[in-house]
Amino acid sequence: MQVAVVHDGTIHPGGAVNVVVEATHALNADLYVGFSGKEAEWWEQRVPNAVSIQRTTSRGGTVNDIRTAWSILNLDLREYDIVLTSGPAAKFFQPYDNQLHLHYIHHPPLSSLWFDGSLFAYLVKLIDRVETSAVPHLVANSDLTATRVYRQYNYEVDQVIAPPVDVAKFSPNATRVENQIVMVGRLEERKRSTIAVNAFRSLPEYRLKLVGDGPLREKIEQDTPSNVDILGYVDDATLRRTVEESIAGVFLAEREDFGITPIEYMAAGMPVVGVDEPNTNNQIDQETGVLVDPTPDAVADGIRTAVGREWDRETIRSRAEDYGSERFRTKIREFVETIDS
């Protein structure tokens, strides 16, 4: 059985890249990437077989998405029995006769284009719906994404398989800094970074380590409380150390299709102060954290509750292990074997 994995592309590797890398290992597959901010050598160090990469330094928005979809549409992959695609543009791949095609959905389109009433937007949405309905097998990364797919396309996914999280890189037994809280994520409105920062105005006894960069950084820096440190983008070693040293992690992102960051907090054995919204409230329960409304006062209260309670680090860690890479490899391999039988 010959398998190819086709990913539409990425400039900065994230959760979607973890999915395609682990899928190539699970299925012993070759990899095709539509566009990439990384050189081919970066991918070759992470996947088991051949890699075909279109190198680029700028994604270019909707126009580049269309260009990528067109290039994937014209891929000649007739030598493969099964093709797994990942990313919105990749589902435009056209399989040959007797070739199995399955598509992993990280999220339905959330861009402003989908709420645009223009003729161009209408045509793009129409084509997207037609192409989605033509894919014989869909896998979603969460129940929330599966629900959104049904609402947007009137199409039920075959299975939900959560993305892989590298829980092994975090230790639940590190020495903690007794007043340190961490928040990891892009500094943008959807991540609600300013809400977390404002919560610490009423928490002078605690210190927030804000890991990440983004369009809100300048605004936050103009009025940052003295107990908030903006670290920006950091390397893996610094990220791991900062998370492991903290006593709680904050995650407030809205419309989060899955949410890898809360699982990484749990892998470090610490409670999560998470927003009480899907999909975050599907990941956190009374044994792993505190759910809060997305307001500074509620977040501050949630942090006090989390810090003031005794937690079983091993229990929290074990929840994270449910999302480990081996679990993902097994699930995706079993699904492919099922549809290929």
From TrEMBL:
Domain Glycosyl transferase family: 176-320
InterPro entries referenced in this protein's UniProt entry, alphabetically: Glyco_trans_1, Glycosyltransferase_grp1
One Pfam family per UniProt: Glycos_transf_1
One MF term in the entry's GO annotations: glycosyltransferase activity
Protein name: Glycosyltransferase
The species this protein was found in: Haloterrigena salifodinae
